[in-house]
Here is the input.
Amino acid sequence: MSTPERDRLIDQYLTALNNMTLVQMAHRLTPFVARDVAFKDPRLSASGPDALTDALSSLFDGTQGITFRITDRAWGQDGFTVYLRWDRLLKLPDDRKCAYSGISEIMIGTHGKIASIIDHWDPADHQVSKPASLLGRLLNR
Here is the structure.
């Protein structure tokens, strides 16, 4: 996969992610991910497009919408892994807004589709989680 092709794949994936609703999620992500795509974040892990859709759908729980803002991007030395620094902005039902930041490690497989997505973020920063643990409440002070 050439550099322009891999950049285009990631750009298209991010555009789909940023413009989707919960209903559109499975349809919009399928063209970009492998049949055995793996996903992991501090809360859960999933394997396969359907499980990835379920995992990403859980981001919408308790929100009226989500926006991802990519603040930086770097390709790994292997040429198949991209690191994305992002802010995830959530609109809550009571019109409050919540934001947290993280890094995604996205690996493109030899088949030219996304093979794995590992999201790194601090659960203590995720103030929408239900219910907040004692440690989370202490860390958020």
